[in-house]
Amino acid sequence: MATALATALVVRNVDMSLYCSRTYSWDEVIKIVDAAVREREGLLRKEYEMVVQEKLAEQFQFFTQFNQDYIHRQLRESQFNYMS
């Protein structure tokens, strides 16, 4: 794991040195930043969707448990003989 991280840093440093020696036009900067923003936005959307799905599943579980408890209490407290 540490070796992969070190390799990634070396590759990133090499790439950064190439980028540092070049001057970018305004249009190139806009394209680079736009691509980075779109990539990050996609990752954030995926993470958000996962959190929302987890919360909805948890909420549904609580609702189901509450509903089962409520029905069980209603049937237990019922005065109707045909329900027993």
Automatic annotation (TrEMBL):
State the protein's name: Uncharacterized protein
Provide one Gene Ontology cellular component: chromatin
- Family per record: Belongs to the akirin family.
Record's keyword annotation contains Nucleus: yes
Picking any one GO molecular function of the record gives: transcription coregulator activity
Per the UniProt record, the lineage of the source organism begins with: Eukaryota, Fungi, Fungi incertae sedis, Mucoromycota, Mucoromycotina
Q: Which InterPro entries match?
A: Akirin
Q: Which UniProt keywords apply?
A: Nucleus
Q: Where in the cell is it found?
A: Nucleus
The species is Jimgerdemannia flammicorona
Biological process according to GO: positive regulation of transcription by RNA polymerase II
Could you tell me the superkingdom of the organism this chain comes from? Eukaryota
